């Protein structure tokens, strides 16, 4: 009986873990795409960047720091909310209103999950 349970766990466990990682990657890519399509500006260390440039920057940070990210929330908290160089928070500036990027991304994640 224990062998059957162990065999099932070995067969199902890794696949389930890959599925969860795939879901996180899909959500993170969705967040990066939402930034690119937002039409907002992105303030990084006192310099404003276009939405497209911001998305490229977040994609680069994700590709380099992927091993530290297990979920979309990890991505927001660890990579997409502040500069890893200066520690300064990123800002999304939409229609003249600045909002911390972490808050903007968290709200966007909720919307992505609802759709």
| Main sheet properties | 4 strands, antiparallel
**How would you describe the shape?**
globular
Distance between the termini: 42 Å
The helix fraction, in percent, is 55-70%
SSE pattern, N- to C-terminal: HEEHHEEH
Return the domain count. 1
Strand content: 5-15%
How many helices in DSSP terms? 4
Structural class: alpha+beta
What does this structure look like?
- The protein is α+β, with helices and mostly antiparallel strands.
- The chain has one domain.
- The chain contains 4 helices and 4 strands; from the N terminus they run αββααββα.
- A 4-stranded antiparallel sheet has the order 2-1-3-4.
- A hairpin with a 2-residue loop joins strand 1 and strand 2.
- The longest helix is centred in the N-terminal third of the chain and has 36 residues, at 2-37.
- It is globular, with a radius of gyration of 17 Å.
- The protein starts with a helix and ends with a helix.
- The model is unreliable at 1-20 (pLDDT under 50).
